[in-house]
Amino acid sequence: MFLYLSMIETEEEKCKFVQIYENYQYFMWYVANEVLQDKYLAEDAVQDAFLALTRHLDKVEEVKSTKTKNFIATIVKSKAIDILRKKKGQTEEYEEGIVGESREDILDNYIQKEDHESLVEAIYQLDELYRVVFEYKYLHEFSDREIAQILEVTPKVVNVRLFRGKKKLREILAKEGI
User: Fold this and answer.
1) Where are the alpha helices (DSSP H) in 37-139?
2) Which of 75-89, 117-131, 147-161, 163-177 has the highest mean pLDDT?
3) What letter does residue 111 receive in the DSSP assignment?
4) Closest Cα to residue 132, out of 143, 145, 123?
5) Could you tell me the sign of the dihedral formed by the alpha carbons of 105, 109, 112, 114, in that order?
6) What average pLDDT does this structure show over 8-18?
7) Burial bucket for residue 87 (CB in 10 Å: 0-12, 13-18, 19+)
8) What was the pLDDT predicted at 16?
9) How far apart are CA 167 and CA 44, in angstroms?
10) What end-to-end distance do the CA atoms of the chain give, in Å?
11) pLDDT tens digits, residue range 17-56?
12) Reduced to 3 states, what is the DSSP secondary structure of residue 139?
């Protein structure tokens, strides 16, 4: 933990980090182990997540809150998935030339109408790869650049995942007749 604390500048953030560490370290390990099914790799994922968290402490307002717990779970899941991806030797696909979507996009309409429940249910049907990006973007309101830093990918990859995720989300919503 001292390594992480040495990376944090202010005393206030150090205190916040210690509280997060003490409150969520076992939860984080559990989440990582659920993804990885390997206790040693889960420990690696938790360490990676804590390292990422040192750079994003400003996103944590209140340590003991559902929002913070979801934020931490999202980071740990993405780090665990990164480890799985490296372990399996998967490579990331890149897509050239993504065209922006119009304001009449079905997702924009959904968000504007605040039909949250149906949208959230549809998002949870997405593959983990897309769902994580959606959680960071719309639940935690991160920019593409911040998401790229957390996931350790380029902003273009984040953009591609959002584009593909929206496409899949439209298909899910269409199947449900929404």
Assistant:
1) 39-54, 66-88, 106-113, 116-123, 128-134
2) 147-161
3) H
4) 123
5) negative
6) 80
7) exposed
8) 84
9) 33
10) 48
11) 889 889 998 999 998 988 888 888 999 999 888 888 888 8
12) helix
User: Using a CB cutoff of 8 Å and minimum separation of 24, what contacts does 103-106 make?
Assistant: 105/166, 106/170, 106/173
Token pair recorded at residue 100: 């922006």
Using alpha carbons, list the distances in angstroms from residue 60 to 29, 107, 129, 131, 167: 19, 27, 23, 21, 31
Show the tokens assigned to 10.
């202010």
Asked whether the beta carbons of 86 and 167 are under 8 A apart, the reply is no
**How does pLDDT run across 88-147, given as a tens digit for each residue?**
764 343 333 334 444 334 444 444 444 556 677 777 788 888 888 888 887 777 888 888
